[in-house]
Amino acid sequence: MHYYGTSSINEKGHLTIGGVDTIELANEFGTPLYVYDTQLIRERARGFKETFEKLGVSSQVAYASKAFSSIAMIQLIAEEGLSLDVVSGGELYTALKAGFDPEKIHFHGNNKSPEEIAMALDANIGCFVVDNFYEIELLSRICAEKDKSASILLRVTPGIEAHTHDYILTGQEDSKFGFDLQNGQAEEALKMVLKDRYFNVLGLHCHIGSQIFETTGFIMAAEKMIEKMAAWSTALDFKAQVLNLGGGFGIRYTKEDEPLAPGKYVEDIITKVKQLMTEHQLSMPEIWIEPGRSLTGDAGTTLYKIGSSKHVPDVRNYLAVDGGMSDNIRPALYNARYEAVIANRPEDKADSIVSIAGKCCESGDMLIWDLPITKHEPGDVLAVFCTGAYGYAMANNYNRIPRPAVVFAENGQAELVIERESYEDLIRHDLPLKHSGVDVK
Ligand SMILES: Cc1ncc(COP(=O)(O)O)c(C=O)c1O
Ligand SMILES: N[C@@H](CCCC[NH3+])C(=O)O
Predict the structure, then answer these.
(1) Catalytic, out of 143, 206, 361, 386
(2) Residue with the nearest Cα to atom 6 of ligand 2?
(3) Residue 316, marked binder
(4) Cβ of 155 less than 6 Å from ligand 2
(5) How confident is the model at residue 424 (pLDDT cuts 50, 70, 90)?
């Protein structure tokens, strides 16, 4: 079995994370439970920053908070000195409530509302990543109303097909995001924003997709952007101070996945970027990146309690857990694959194959197909690895299932950072009919 970060086995033979016994965590906080190995997140954050330092390149590493955001998570990101990518008013609100330095916040999104833009301007955030022509006009109008300027990056689509799942591709021409680099839209947008007295145009942004294992796509995107930067430097006298290459660095979910080490992505891409800048006689801009999954993905583990099982003769053994697509929708959405162990005896030899079913009323609510597993019984704890990105963040209340609790574990201490939702939480915003013969409790 592949263990991530600080995960280990203790003297009782139980899986530990951050030096804490996962069985004790399940007993204390209940299941399903998201457990984060925060030391691993810190190591990843430091690794990215050190790689840039080693390369002698000015940078901002912005955590893509869509991967997993909470007050405590944002505090941790602030402690590590990273910047933050937010993509909605809600993510921005969370960051501001967590005391995050607004100067280091970058605001994304392909349809920012006027209210979200106003909120971000009022908070004096560091940068807007402008996605489309409508947003140029809207942002300029709201800046004018408030008599405030905004630093911006233009998000471009470089026309790159990264090798990943279709739903998480974003750099290709036919995408809802950004200004097309090839068909002249990006240039038109650049001319517009350069003329606008409310904008301080910092540079360009692209994000070609997620869970990418090779650097080729990133390098091709950088090549296309740098070619345009060279052309615009001469034609428009536009000298980009910032080149943002987005996130998307892949991680290992199962033994079939072979990602590069996170620092290696940066090293290979930036080495090439430096070379291209020299070739085009451009001075090196600040490089920004936006890792989400590669900071938190393998630092998260979900603990479930095993419940019912069903044997379909000659076909399959189903084993159900007390969560499912309500706490992790990725298998249903992307056919995402995971590995898991029985946390109370992770080292025991697997002697059967089961398919892990969720408890939602949906045939597609399957967490893992054909998992080799050791002996187990109802009440045992199943630990599903690598659920730290887009797991809790995409959790929902389907079937009115309360969202789970989240715990940070580090140096033998566990800290509850998100409480489990209660049934009361589920009906908090429900309003009874005003004129009904049925009285509610
Ligand atoms: C604009 C942008 N930046 C960064 C990210 C983070 O991607 P990842 O979690 O794959 O690093 C995403 C999500 O794919 C994104 O859309
Ligand atoms: N939510 C996706 C990634 C999309 C990232 C946002 N652009 C995942 O779980 O893999």
Answers:
(1) 361
(2) 168
(3) no
(4) no
(5) very high
Which residues have CB under 6 Å of ligand 1? 64, 67, 85, 108, 170, 207, 210, 246-249, 290-294, 389
How far is 313 from 351, CA to CA, in rounded Å? Answer: 17
334 annotated among ligand-binding-site residues: yes
Question: Could you state, in order of their start, the residue ranges of all structural domains in the chain?
Answer: 8-37+298-426, 108-291
- CATH superfamily, region 8-37+298-426: Lyase, Ornithine Decarboxylase; Chain A, domain 1 (2.40.37.10)
In the chain, DSSP finds a helix count (H) and a strand count (E) of: 12, 21
ipTM at complex level: 0.98
30 Cα to the center of ligand 1, angstroms: 31
Tracing tokens 């430096």 back to the chain, one arrives at: 274
Q: Which amino acid is at 270?
A: I
Query: Is 361 a residue of the active site?
Result: yes
Higher per-residue confidence, 264 vs 1:
264
The Cα diameter of the chain in Å comes to 78
The tens digit of pLDDT for each residue in 35-54 reads 999 999 999 999 999 999 99
Positive or negative torsion for Cα 43, 44, 46, 52: positive
pLDDT in tens, 380-392: 999 999 999 999 9
Alpha carbon separation from 200 to 29, 114, 153, 162, 182 (Å, rounded): 48, 19, 9, 31, 24
Residue owning the nearest CA to atom 8 of ligand 2: 390
Q: What's the CATH fold of domain 108-291?
A: TIM Barrel (3.20.20)
Closest CA to 356 of 405, 333, 398, 323: 323
pTM exceeds 0.95 = yes
Q: Which atom of ligand 2 is nearest to the CA of 330?
A: 9
Rounded (10°) angle between helices 89-97 and 71-79? 60
- Ligand-binding annotation for 126, yes or no, is no
Task: Give the nearest ligand 2 atom to 393 CA.
Answer: 1
- 304 forms beta bridges with 382
Please state the separation of Cα 415 from the chain's center in Å.
22
